[in-house]
Amino acid sequence: MATQRILADEDFGRIVIRTRRTARNISMRVRPEGLYVVVPPFSRADKILEAIAPFRPRLLESFRKVAVRLIDFNFSIQADCFRLSLVPSRLRCFTVKEEGEEMRIYCPADTDFGRDEVQKLVRNAIVRALKRRAESFLPPLLAAWSARCGLPYRKVRITGARTRWGSCTATRTISLSCYLMLVPTHLMDYVMLHELAHTREMNHGPRFWELLDSLTDGQSHRLRAELRNFHTGF
After folding, report:
1. pTM above 0.85?
2. Which of 191, 179, 192, 190 is nearest to 131 (CA)?
3. 129 vs 160: CA distance, rounded Å
4. pLDDT band for position 190 (50/70/90)?
5. Run of H or E including 165
6. Can you tell me the distance from the alpha carbon of 41 to that of 62, in angstroms, rounded to the nearest whole number?
């Protein structure tokens, strides 16, 4: 069972340390919200920081490329399956509307985007827009893949998880992150197939990867690596 610790850090804002029972080495990955580190059980925080130190300059360079940027009226999302823009409005509150193929967030025209509380409000509005579109888009896609592959599930949930694209329980309930709306379609399909494979193999053992390879034309590990390096951009 994985456990998690969070350390404040002057470079990355925070370092999220996850202990994984099956880990044999320390692995590191930057995300917009900080540095994520997976470690073996019983790893001490000071030893983890020592292990990070030689890689810190390179990790910091990568972090600067993906760090969260300011959202204002110039911000937009143009993903394969999700379009979003911010629009000035006479309204005095932030309002999410779906207009055709695009989600729009109407913001007061005099919004001060430099304020932290405003950034939080706007980001929350974006998540609401993602969830709204995901709830109508992702379940039918999962159902189509399920029927095509002959891998039934019990139900599907849409979540706001940022660090986990999907999951599947022993009762075959599949959870999908609304942030999947931001990934390219081939990676979205990969996540669907990954979770459907778990309805038959509830682990990441050899039989799981054999099944997933059969569903992805032998591309499961390549797609997994590509997904691990994908950043949502906000």
Report:
1. no
2. 179
3. 11
4. very high
5. none
6. 27
Tokens (6 digits) for 231: 């950043």
Taking the C-alpha atoms of residue 130 and residue 221, their distance in angstroms, rounded to an integer, is 27
- Output phi, psi for 218, to 5 deg: 75, 15
Dihedrals phi, psi of 36, to nearest 5 degrees: -110, 130
**Alpha-helical regions (H) of 13-69:** 45-52, 56-66
Cα-atom radius of gyration of the chain, to the nearest Å?
20
Three-state secondary structure call for residue 217: coil
- Could you give the CA distance from residue 35 to residue 66 in angstroms, rounded to a whole number? 11
What's the start-to-end Cα distance of the chain, in Å?
29
pLDDT (tens digit, 9 = 90+) per residue, 9-42? 988 889 999 999 888 899 999 988 889 999 999 9
State residue 79 phi and psi, 5-degree precision: -90, 170
pLDDT digits (tens, 9 = 90+) for 50-105: 999 999 999 998 888 777 678 999 999 999 999 999 999 998 888 999 988 899 99
